């Protein structure tokens, strides 16, 4: 894997619900990457009680606070357009021999990051399609003054070009991108209750015709 792919894979795991399995993997994740921002978050997680980090995670990634890990929420909000966007994401997975195999929604950022680690070119294109929402999420989480901002900063650093520094710049990025990215971005999209992950499972798997790329 390339360095960017490793960042995406490790970041995707760190952005899932911090259960006991995550804590069991922290040493392995630390060894897998030398990215300073990811290692900074791992060091933080090591000294936090699992229950405390879990409560913090739920508080941070909450649509009511306009911080959401489901990227089509940023572009479509709670509209019928979002259903079409989710189908589109799943179709991209299928086009690359990957079958969606998670109880999560296909636009859940850790799911996209796993795909973008294993299929870098297609995954980068998919993240670019939703970059405005991703950057708005990064800015919102940074404003919340949480260590999770380091993980999102590392993720955005794997994409071409500089990240927007302000919400206005991120919204301008949305207006210059695909038309569907502009829906719901003023302001950020309506609130919507979404399921939060309770188990950390692999999000995508190869179809029977292709082997899955090892982590």
Distance between the termini: 8 Å
Beta-strand percentage range = under 5%
Category from helices, strands and their pairing: mainly alpha
What's the shape?
globular
Describe the main β-sheet briefly.
2 strands, antiparallel
Question: Which residues sit in consecutive blocks of at least 5 with pLDDT less than 50?
Answer: 177-204, 206-215
Q: Give the radius of gyration.
A: 16 Å
Strand order of the largest sheet: 1-2
User: Can you write the helix and strand succession as a string?
Assistant: HHHHHHEHHHHHE
How many helix segments? Answer: 11
Oligomer: single chain
Residue share in helices? 55-70%
| Counted beta strands | 2
Q: Mean pLDDT, as a whole number?
A: 78
Annotate the secondary structure layout.
Elements: H1 3-14, H2 20-32, H3 36-47, H4 50-60, H5 71-76, H6 80-95, E1 98-100, H7 109-118, H8 120-129, H9 131-143, H10 148-156, H11 167-176, E2 204-206
Antiparallel strand pairs: 1-2
Helix pairs in contact: 1-7, 1-10, 2-3, 3-10, 7-8, 9-10, 9-11
Describe the structure.
The protein is mainly alpha-helical and 215 residues long. It contains 11 helices and 2 strands. It is globular. The N and C termini lie close together (8 Å). The C terminus is likely disordered.
